[in-house]
Amino acid sequence: MRLQVVGLSHHTAPVEVRERVEVSKEALPAALAELRALAGVREAMLVSTCNRVEALAVTDAPGESAEALRGWFAARSGQAPPRTVPLLYRYEDEAAVRHVFRVAASLDSLVIGEPQILGQVKAGHRAASAHRAAGAVLDRLVVKASHVARRVRSETGIARAAVSVSYAAADLARRIFDRLDDKTALIVGAGEMGVLALRHLVDRGVKRVHVVNRTMGRAEEVAAAFHGTAHDLAGLPEALPLADIVISCTGASAHLVTREAVQAAMRRRRGRSMFLIDISVPRNVDPRARDVPNVYVYDIDDLQAVVEHNLGHRRSEADAAEAIVEDEVRRYQRTLGGVRATPLVRALVRKAEAAREAEIQRTLDRFADLPEDLRARLHGALDAMTLALTKRVLHDPIRAVKELGAAGDLESLEAAGRLFAVEGPIMEMVGAALGEYPVADPAEGAAAPLRADTHAGAVPGERRG
Fold it and tell me: What is the bridge-based pairing of β-strands 229-232 and 89-92?
C-alpha cells in the first residue's frame, strides 16, 4: 500500500479557490465517505484550514487513486479539472511522509512556527478515525508527525518569537511589566487587531479589562467576552487612568489619546507606569505622549519591526527544524521498510526451511537400515550442510527484499513474491504487517512482535537475540 497526499494551500491556490474546497465540520463525514469510496483508497483523512485543504490517502492503486483525488478536488471547487488540477500538489510515499511532518511542525505554514496546525492535523485524524476512514497506516503516521512537531518545538526556537502585530503587542507588554496578572487593560476601538491583542494579554494573565468604542453595543459585546467593562467614546477620559496597558485601534483620523489626556491620567495614577500600543493608521495616540514620564508608547512601525526581526529569527531556526524533519523521515522510512519487507522475508524463510527439512527427511528415509547412532550422525551432518547452503542461497534475496521495503517499492515486492512463488497475496500480507507491527525507531529500542520461530530478518537456524 502507498501513502499519498493531494491538496492545495496558500502556496499554490488563491483564497477564492481554497474557500470553495474548504470542508466544514458539518460536511466532514460526507467528505470522508466520498474519499474512502474513491478507487483504490483504503484509508483517508482530511486536513482543512483557512490556508490549506489536503487529503491523506493510503491506496493500493496509486495512479488511479491520484486521478480520483484530483477529480474530487475539482468537483468540490465547482470548476473544470483543467482549472483546478494545476493548483494541486501531490506527494507519494517518502515525499508524502516528509510533507506531513513539515506541516505538523509548522514549517509549511503561512506563519512559520504557529502552533495551531498540529492541533488541526490531529483533529482531522480524530474525525477520520471516528468515521472509520483512517486505519493503522494513518494512525501511525499522525502519531509520528506529532512526535516530530514536539521535537521541533522543544529543540529549536521556531515558536518562541512573536510574529504578528497583536502578538508582538502583548509580548512587549510582558517585557515592560514584571507580571500581568495584577494589570488592567483598555482597548480603544474594538477592532479585530485590538481585540486579538487583548486576547493575547488575557492569555498572559491580565484579569481586568475595559473596552471603549464609538458604538456602545460593540463595546458591550467585546467587554462581555472578556468579563470586562464597556464605555462609549465619551467615557475615555474616565477609563484611561484605570489602565496599565492601552491598546488603540480605530479608524479615527485624529489623536483620540492626546498628550494632555495622558498627563491627566498619570496624575491620577500617581506616576504608575502606563503602556500604550497604537496599532492604528492614522495614529490614534499622540506621539508626544512618549515625553510623559513612565509612559511607554509603541506604534505600528515599532511593532512591525519586532515582527520582522522575529520572523528572521524563526526563518533561521527553520533550518534546524528542517534537519530534524529529515532525520525523522529517515528513521520512519527505515523502520517502515523493515515492516514492509517482513511478510515476504518470513515467507521465503518458511518456504526454504520446509524444503530443507523435507529433503533431510527424504534422505534419511533412504538410510532407514542404518544403526540409530549412525542415523543421528547423518542427520546432524545433513542439517549442518543444508543450513549453511540455505543461508548462502537466501542471503542475497533477503537483502534485496529488505532494500525494496526500505525504498517503499511495493510493486517490486509483489513481483518478488511471484518470482519466489510464495503463498498468499503479498500486498495483503504487507497490509496486515502494517496493522500488526508498531512502527518505532530502532534507536528507541522497540521491535515488532514476531509470531514465527524464525527471526523476520534472519535465515533458518539463526536465533532471536
Answer: unpaired
- The stretch 222-237 carries a mean pLDDT of 95
3-state helix, strand, coil in the chain (%, to 5): 60, 15, 30
H/E stretch holding 232 reads: strand 229-232
Indicate if 93 and 194 belong to the same structural domain: no
50 is catalytic: yes
Question: What is the rounded distance in angstroms from the CA atom of residue 36 to the CA atom of residue 116?
Answer: 26
Query: Tens of pLDDT along 338-360?
Result: 666 777 888 888 888 989 999 99
Confirm whether 314 is domain-assigned: no
Please, are residues 55 and 45 in contact by the beta-carbon 8 Å criterion? yes
Which of 329, 335, 326 has its CA nearest to residue 402?
335
Confidence of residue 458 (pLDDT cuts 50, 70, 90): very low
**Catalytic pick from 15, 33, 37, 50?**
50
* Residue 102: inside a domain: yes
270, 305, 340: which is the final residue of a domain? 305
Its domain, for residue 258, covers 165-305
- Please say which residue of 104, 132, 158 terminates a domain: 158
